[in-house]
Amino acid sequence: MKGEFLTRIPPVPRPSLAPIAATLPETVPFVGPEAIARRSGVPLRARIGANESPFGPAPSVLAAMTSAARESWHYGDPENHDLREAIAAHLDISAANVMPGEGVDAILGMAVRLFAAPGSTIVTSLGGYPTFNYHIAGYGAQMHTVPYIGDREDIDALARAARETQAAMVYLANPDNPMGSWWDAASIERFIAAVPDTTMIVLDEAYGEFAPAGTIPAFDAGCSNLLRMRTFSKAYGLAGARVGYVLGDAANISAFNRIRNHFGISNVAQAAAIAALADGAHLESSLAAVRASLEDTAAIASRHGLTPLPTATNFLAIDCGRDGAYAQAILDGLAQRGVFVRKPVVAGLNRCIRVSAGTAADRALFDQALGEVLAELG
Amino acid sequence: MKGEFLTRIPPVPRPSLAPIAATLPETVPFVGPEAIARRSGVPLRARIGANESPFGPAPSVLAAMTSAARESWHYGDPENHDLREAIAAHLDISAANVMPGEGVDAILGMAVRLFAAPGSTIVTSLGGYPTFNYHIAGYGAQMHTVPYIGDREDIDALARAARETQAAMVYLANPDNPMGSWWDAASIERFIAAVPDTTMIVLDEAYGEFAPAGTIPAFDAGCSNLLRMRTFSKAYGLAGARVGYVLGDAANISAFNRIRNHFGISNVAQAAAIAALADGAHLESSLAAVRASLEDTAAIASRHGLTPLPTATNFLAIDCGRDGAYAQAILDGLAQRGVFVRKPVVAGLNRCIRVSAGTAADRALFDQALGEVLAELG
Questions:
Q1: What is the model's pLDDT at position A2?
Q2: Is A67 on the interface with B (CB under 8 A)?
Q3: Taking a contact as any Cβ pair under 8 Å apart, which residues of chain B between 124 and 143 contact chain A?
Q4: Does A120 touch chain B (CB under 8 A)?
Q5: What's the CATH number of domain B33-54+281-377, 1.25.40.10, 3.40.50.720, 1.25.40.80, 3.90.1150.10?
Q6: ipTM score of the complex?
Q7: In chain A, which residues have their Cβ closer than 8 Å to the Cβ of B26?
Q8: Which CATH architecture has domain A59-278?
Q9: Residue B111 dihedral angles phi and psi, to the nearest 5°
Q10: How many angstroms separate the CA atoms of A311 and A177, rounded?
């Protein structure tokens, strides 16, 4: 064997990764539909898997973005002053309780970095938002999970786990992703009261605009262990622009100034978000379009013998009626036909696929592809 | 005294900041000109303080941004595939050696998080890039500084300090900000060779496009302790779009997948950067405009009895000939006239003000304001 005679070259010394980074996998929390298409060779025909909005942004927002693009030669305002004021005015709260950021994903990472020491415990639901889990691992905290109950996040068990583990943080999405389920505002307030004062609650309200009245609690500027996440990615149709914000008590909001990426929100995104807040008519029409789209999607699912679950979001969890492998086979069959959909992965929830509100063309493709896939699977 | 009779209310318990975050000040590494104008009430007339480019982006880039804005309803490609390939093709290297990110500021933060454990030492120049220092503190590392020598970063002393402190990282900007000075490629290669293999070198080449031939070393995919930062903010005129990239060996580049904000670069920014790389003619014309602008700015400074320093960037350090207080008074006088300029703060360097390449209108305002301020100061 040639190998015997090769000289062993000692490895060249190189910089080490920091201890936490060294433990982390290289990962993408969500593989994008572009990557799926590149790898499978199947062109993307219906993009209804990432809870985006094909009904936005508004023409008024596009005009603001086009105008702001011409200002791209200079940095945006690192204080995001005008955007911050616009959000505060929209919600009728103080700007001191608002911090914009370059998308909720980035804000979630900053929140973990601020409030969870390495080794501390963070409570979340088993099957909850993967990007939050990515940040838990990324900053060296320990994840403690609580199962869903009846396709909802189990708020009593989450609060209990926060107490029992003396958690640094606890995460709850209301309405929930990936199941589309929700709790009413009174239940959320009961949850907040049941969590220890020393545990920071991350209440992710990314889908709040889609929820029925009575779902979103009133803002309480005096609650010192609550951060509420909001985004322009969903109802405002600006997923690709990267802008969201966090609401909280003034001291917690101000703490983001210790670590945030001050120039992180582009000029175009700042202008887009301000214009989006000003165009209430477009928001209303988008919400109506989402409702109509999901009603039609539910009808399609029912016609094919599947069971749509109730939803307070811009997507529909559809119970495929058998196990996770069966739902995965449906997902794979849809993907082979260029219909991009996602699904929960955790046992119990994984009997479902998750379909975002799409256009009439998206739904027609979904209808046809679903019929073909179900016929194939028998 | 009334105070005697007030009941002491015990503080309500609240979540603690993580230990590193608790040590950090609330800060903005650079107060933006918008904030300066809001606080002073003086409208911004000449924006020549942040090394932006009034000559960009190209019309072709604006067209790409306008088109991409319409795609803002969906998330951008989290792998930034097309942009990554475009950068690699532009540089004639492998995409495995390239990682785009949402601006160099964000990439610098990720680099520190990846390669510097809390408590480890990072070497940089006293008076070097403040945002890098912000990340050093932000991730709990210790900053070790080395003074400039002859208005340049002292590459021999930086390498020596990296050896003596067994530094996790060492930072060097070439060309340098804020002085505009530079080393030739051979000196940089000597510096790289003198730094220990276990110290990660951050070579910030944000101003590389402006430098004379022979300044930027050839890319070496085998160098395992070097990360090179590049940006679309300066020569490409896209500061407000938030997009930069890092070059390095494949393992180091891939490590960014452990912690990066995968959806961080907006659709508009990805499209803008791709279009910018394709428009070489605009880049050339911008570089020529910057050169002409700085020649004129240097002449203005000289006419007023100040000394422009040599520059390999899109800005000019101007030696005001006295101490830091005098240069600060000039800066303040310019600010009172709506002329936004910055200056180094460290002793020795702080005799200078730093003026970015501006338009003819910017320069006329600078000329007039400078004359008034110098007359006032006597």
A1: 45
A2: no
A3: 138
A4: yes
A5: 3.90.1150.10
A6: 0.95
A7: 254-255, 257-258
A8: 3-Layer(aba) Sandwich (3.40)
A9: -65, -45
A10: 10
